[in-house]
Amino acid sequence: MEKPTVIGYIMDQPRALKQAYADRQVFIRPFIELFRRYPIKKIYFLGSGTSYHASVIGSYYMKHLLHIDAEAHYPTIFANYERVDPHYDKTEVLFLGISQTGTSISTIQVMQKAKQEGYLTAVLCEDLNSEITHHVDEVIHLRCGKELTPPETRGFTVTVLTLYLWTLELGLAQQKMTNEIYEKYQEELRHLLEELPAVFDDCIKWYQENKNDFLESERLHVLGYGVDSGSALEAALKIGEMFRKPTISYDIEEYAHGPNMALKPDQAIFMIGADEVEWERLLQFRDVFKKYTERIYVITTKHLKDATKRDMIFPLTVNKYLAVILHAIPFQLVAAMGARDSGIDTAVNPFEEPLSHLPDKAS
Ligand SMILES: O=P(O)(O)OC[C@H]1O[C@](O)(CO)[C@@H](O)[C@@H]1O
């Protein structure tokens, strides 16, 4: 990439994800080793922004695929208002920070506090020389490469890939996942990595066909559920950071409890169609929402019988845990291309005061 741009990082993901997969032992080995050395039964995932959203997804993987007790928290809220589950012995708890830059102030502080209190701490971080690495027991490399523009995009999908692979390997190591499932999920991942360039082509075409709607929309909503609760949060953050339109994410059922009353024809609703029990509910809501705005977009790998050009139906089927990586792409494009097409320079952070990061990545 000659001049780093967000669109450049987004388009680089097929290469970056393949590379991270090829290098996977770098981050798998130390993670599995932690579980071999310590009797970990509870994981607290901690991170801000994109790293929090990946944490929500990681805790879902651990709970639903491995039955390991896991929670994701915003660092400040955890530090100030939560307490460690007293049912666990100190040795059974892992504080797992995620910070791409390693400079998020609140994540550094919560990890530092946990370590001082004698808990086992680890961080998944791209910058191995960053501040956070001095405040944890174990540093695990996030193989996404540095992103020199403010929004994290490549970092998100590489983090999700890391969490997915950690879960599969731990499942095998602790015999919580059969060889058959392990192989199936690995094969689906390899297939996805091969198909990603074609997926990007489809997503760009979908953006082009719908871009006028996006540009003209006064407000955007992203509805998700299940494993894609984290995807919905991430989608809203990306659009807010780049396209800078009012964008709110909701759990799909909760959206129908009042926020829907503000729905108007110049608003858009993206519905992430995960393969979970709420799928039928999504179809029901979609029919109703269409009476209030035509701008309804289903983003899914599932079959949608009356799909229109507004819906982004991925041309491949993968398990719901992995579909999270696919679901991120259309939103990254709406955010970055929507910004470009409305004259916003995403390389410039309009907010000059460093509040959330230590100075080398001030925001
Ligand atoms: O993963 P990190 O480096 O801790 O950053 C967390 C969040 O902070 C930001 O850089 C903005 O403060 C977001 O882009 C990012 O999601």
Brief description of this entry?
This protein has 363 residues and is α/β, with parallel strands linked by helices.
Describe, in plain words, how this protein is organized in 3D.
- The protein is α/β, with parallel strands linked by helices and 363 residues long.
- It folds into two domains: 6-177, 3-Layer(aba) Sandwich (Rossmann fold), CATH 3.40.50.10490; 195-342, 3-Layer(aba) Sandwich (Rossmann fold), CATH 3.40.50.
- 48% of the residues lie in helices and 14% in strands.
- The chain has twelve helices and ten strands.
- α5 (75-81) crosses α6 and α7 packs antiparallel against α12 (320-341).
- The mean pLDDT is 96.
- The structure holds 6-O-phosphono-beta-D-fructofuranose.
- The site of 6-O-phosphono-beta-D-fructofuranose has 15 residues, from α4.
